[in-house]
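For the sake of transparency, this paper describes our internal protein records without simplification. The record that follows is passed on verbatim for readers who wish to inspect the format:
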Amino acid sequence: MTVDDQVVLGAEAGTDIKGVHSDWPPFNNVRDKSQKLQEQITERQRAVILDTRNANQAAIDDIRSIVRKNGWEDDVIWYP
């Protein structure tokens, strides 16, 4: 199964894909990250695929902390 196949299956299964970009403001601070994840996980009841290819380690650690703090470990798929 290719990544494209997984994305199509994910869309059908109620998932949302979020790209984490360390130097790009729309998903760059703790409040924004929390709000985006909460909207998808809690309000829309979707799993979230987090694409961390463009994130630095500090951003990844920050998001991991948010996920753990809110108990969303089962609702987040880390890519790669």
